[in-house]
Amino acid sequence: MDFNGFKQIVIEKCAQLGIEEYELYYQSAASTSVSAFQHEINQFTGATEGGVCLRCIVDGKMGYASTEALTAQQAERIVEKAAENATVLESEEQVFLCEGGQTYIPLEEKKGAMPTTEEMINKVLATQEKLYAADPAVIDGCQTQGVAESCEIAIYNSKGLDLHSKTDLTGLVVVAVVTDGQEMANDYQIKLAQFDAIDADKLAAEAVRSAIAKLGGEVAPTGQYPVVFSPEAMSDLLQTYASVFSSRAAQKGLSKLAGKEGEKIASDAVTLVDDPFHPDAPMPRNFDAEGSPTYKKNLIENGVFKTLLYNLKTAAVDGRKTTGNASKAGYAGAVGISPFTLYLAAGELTEEQLLQKAGNGVYINSLGGLHAGANAVSGDFSLQSAGFMIENGRRTTAVKSFTVAGNFYELLQNITAVASNLELPGMAHFGSPSVLVEGLSIAGK
Amino acid sequence: MISREICKKVLQKAVSTGGDYAEIFAENTTKYNIAMIADKVDSISDAVIAGAAVRVYKGMRSVMASTVDTSEAGLLRCAEQAAEALGQGSAAMDIVLRERIFGDIHPIRTVPGSVGSKEKVEILKAGYFAAREYSNAITQVTGNLLDVDHNILVANTEELYTQDRQIRTWISLSAVAEINGETQTGSCNPGCRMGLEMFETVDPREVGIHAARQAVTMAGAGYCPAGVMPVAIDNGFGGVIFHEACGHSLEASSVAYGRSQFAGKLGQQIANEKVTAIDDGTIPNAWGSINIDDEGTPSRKNVLIENGVLKSYMIDKFNGRRMGMVSTGNARRESYAYTPTSRMTNTYIAPGTDRNEDIIASIEYGLYAKEMGGGSVNPVTGEFNFAVNEGYLIRNGKICEPVRGASLVGKGSEILRNIDMVGTQLDMGQGMCGSSSGSVPTNVGQPMIRVSSITVGGR
Questions:
Q1: Distance between CA A158 and CA A287 in Å, rounded?
Q2: Which of A325, A389, B235, B251 could form a disulfide with A309, with the two C-beta atoms 3.0–4.6 Å apart?
Q3: Distance between CA atoms of A301 and B119, rounded to whole angstroms?
Q4: For chain B, what are the domain ranges?
């Protein structure tokens, strides 16, 4: 049955069990993916997945249960299970459902239809050929993948909330594999946009150029250096440490930013923004995972810490309003907190001027093992890196297989300059220009 | 889950445009997770994951379509979508399905779904408060108890119709300690392919104490120095070094496409002759074990490297076609919504002959990595990294003060040659391994090893 039919059974079952406060969260995604290997399509995937999560308040506790099977039996099961699970909870924090009748910033209509399978295949095969044509160093192993996804979210609750959103995403992923006869190197590039708006030549050339640049690199020398992080590397760091801006983490002693609002936590050069409506974001959202309206906000303004990110529950704990940052990892997950598009605002310098300012140091354009080598609670990180040496203000030798170590909280204070080249790589959840950081530890040869 | 009759019709539809092989994978999974923070049971998630996927091959092409609608009509639509994506034309194949029961080598004595929440909360609390009460320096503890009941069905045009039930239980405790304003974390996350009887052999209190002890030790530690040095990596989760430095590069998903540092190297010496490495999905009740893989091939013990010589890759059916090799029973997927590919199960370096004390004594100045965190690798270049959660400096052959914030980086092909001492006491650690077919449970393992030279990232 469809979501509406399922919803009616849940409403009746809640009434029967005397459950007055509840919410249904429905998420469904239909995606198509086409991949090419060598000169032909080798994989095609059409996936539909999604499910419903019921949250209900029983004796002041929020019980959850969810299912992917939209059947009458499952509709009744999730009501019974959510109510039963609520009785096991002990947290005394007050729980809330979002009020209905609020005002939402309207989303701009995105133009253009989803590509047909044939259009996807043609674009993927054409792009794959551009990879091979870009340079004689290119070898088999290269891959081009086209992706088209439609995602639907609906939230309905007993307080009159009835929200629905549908967002489409299309894009290309290319992997270039190259060799110099001695070793191999690879690079991948993602471009999210309407297929006809993607410049396949540029995307392929960029992946091949970046892959070739990684060949024959040396190991960086061990020591303390000024470091320039590329937009991609700094975006990765922001993603890894986004949880320090969560009010829940702060309230539970898992972020050192607790109680620091109004204080200087970063250098003057740092302004950090969360924007649910950023034009580069493929899936803009005007309501969060609880249904609260979303808005653009500065987390750090010229180095001064302005606000943590909140949902309804954590806002009540701190006696303030939600910032509309409730999030869910999948439809079944507990409501948490996360930014929408979190980025470091652009500065004035060009990247060349930033390198000149650095003088002698290391330029890092790739970080690895962020899920393991970075600790969000202590802020410490020690991460696999690759990039270039900076000598007399210029990028010189390629370097790899070294680590950069430091502490995120200290790094915020030590960002001495921010360039103007703001980029939002990949899914555009995080973004940054190139930044110059003083005094990080490099471990290499 | 789905009858043989319906499977037959769906497979017939799937190959109706000329596919030479088709498969149905269906699942019905329940996941129940209890989470604690700030001394209270904070949230419970209780989810049913149910759906199916149809795959069709034609030569080197593979098409997959998945659906949450597992009714006969829903499955037929799914098969039709796959068949249409494969191409035009009409074809027919005689489909015969014989039910096979491979047997279950992982006995479950207490199915978690048959036990009430209260009993599970008691188990979690025992571990949680053991961590909390370990020291005054502990400022926060988070805990999770997860149980998964994963039921799968696989039917294919090679006459197979079979089902498997995979039950897993996992407890995870993380502690935060603060000493003189320095905050550090510790964690312990054991899991088994068992029911709640797992806690007869794994004491949740010891899990909590382990996490808390690590947090307190690290909060009192200075930063690890940076540089190239010898490292002794202890047993258990230390096996993540092989998983990252070599394991991923032996998966057919990299090898079949030439995207691996070890493609074309079968029979060659790729590691120190002290290294024998095995992937074995048949260890009873081990976290990464499976009776059958997600293509219905029985799991088996595969010797990957024997005395340093590359013996085998880990192969699934589809990538095996391109390699001209048969499946090794390593096809895995997080759920029906992912296209399966070759993945690790329980992967470990086999015991050697060196004594732990000799390994430590052999190092004049280096690092003793007692507990490892996660890592990652680029299989093309073999460049890998992983984090050291608990490390100590070694001076003059003796373990000295603890150091924090270390990570190890290197190139797989070089590091495998640098593993020049291998201990005798094999142990395993549990992890969730993320890759293109999603997140799957895997064991890593090894006895203590010495890496004669590796880059230690510190400050």
A1: 17
A2: A325
A3: 49
A4: 112-150+165-219, 227-457
Instruction: Please list every residue in chain B whose beta carbon sits closer than 8 Å to the beta carbon of residue A37.
Output: 60, 257
Quick check: ipTM above 0.90?
A: yes
- Chain centroid, CA A291 distance in Å: 20
DSSP string, A276-308: TT-TT-SS--SB-TTSPBP--EEEEETTEE---
User: How many CB atoms within 10 Å of residue B379?
Assistant: 26
Q: Is A83 an 8 Å CB contact of chain B?
A: no
SS3 A375: coil
Per-residue pLDDT of chain B (459 residues; tens, 9 = 90+): 899 999 999 999 999 999 999 999 999 999 999 999 999 999 999 999 999 999 999 999 999 999 999 999 999 999 999 999 998 888 889 999 999 999 999 999 999 999 999 999 999 999 999 999 999 999 999 999 999 999 999 999 999 999 999 999 999 999 999 999 999 999 999 999 999 999 999 999 999 999 999 999 999 999 999 999 999 999 999 999 999 999 999 999 999 998 999 999 999 999 999 999 999 999 999 999 999 999 999 999 999 999 999 999 999 999 999 999 999 999 999 999 999 999 999 999 999 999 999 999 999 999 999 999 999 999 999 999 999 999 999 999 999 999 999 999 999 999 999 999 999 999 999 999 999 999 999 999 999 999 999 999 988
User: A-chain residues within 8 Å CB-CB of B144?
Assistant: none
B20 CB contacts (<8 Å, ≥6 apart)? B57, B58, B59
- As a whole number of Å, the end-to-end CA separation of chain B is 55
DSSP per position, B121-168: HHHHHHHHHHHHTS-TTEEEEEEEEEEEEEEEEEEETTSEEEEEEEEE
Q: How far apart are CA A279 and CA A297, in angstroms?
A: 15
- Chain A residue with CA closest to B374: the answer is A372
Residue B113, C-beta contacts closer than 8 angstroms, at least 6 positions apart:
B30, B32, B147, B149
Cα within 13 Å of Cα(B34), Cβ side: 28
Q: Please report residues of B whose CB lies closer than 8 A to that of A403.
A: 226, 385, 407, 409, 455, 457-458
Per-domain boundaries in chain A? 218-445
Judged by CB atoms closer than 8 Å, whether chains meet at A88 and B70 is answered as: no
**Strand B191-192, strand B427-435: pairing:** unpaired
Instruction: State the Cα–Cα distance between residues B138 and A379, nearest whole angstrom.
Output: 17
Q: Which one-letter DSSP state was computed for residue A100?
A: S
Instruction: Give yes or no for A63 touching B (CB within 8 A).
Output: yes
Average confidence (pLDDT) over A18-44: 95
| Helix or strand run (H / E) with residue B78 | helix B72-86
Specify whether the CB–CB gap between B175 and B199 falls below 8 A.
no
Task: Report the amino acid identity of residue A421.
Answer: N
Q: Touching check for A48 and chain B: CB below 8 Å?
A: yes
Give residue-wise pLDDT tens across range A355-379: 999 999 999 999 999 999 999 999 9
**DSSP letters of A154-191?**
EEEETTS-EEEEEEEEEEEEEEEEEE-SS-EEEEEEEE
Q: Which one-letter amino acid corresponds to residue A135?
A: D
Record: contact B46-A66, CB cut-off 8 A = yes
Burial level of A105, CB count in 10 A (0-12/13-18/19+)? middle
* Yes or no, beta carbons of A184 and B381 under 8 Å apart: yes
Chain B positions in Cβ-Cβ contact with residue A405 (cut-off 8 Å): 223, 226, 405, 407, 457-459
Q: Which two tokens stand for residue B31?
A: 């996941």
CATH superfamily, with its number, for domain B112-150+165-219? PmbA/TldD superfamily (3.30.2290.10)
Distances in whole angstroms, Cα of residue A65 to Cα of each of A86, A326, B45, B310? 10, 18, 6, 47
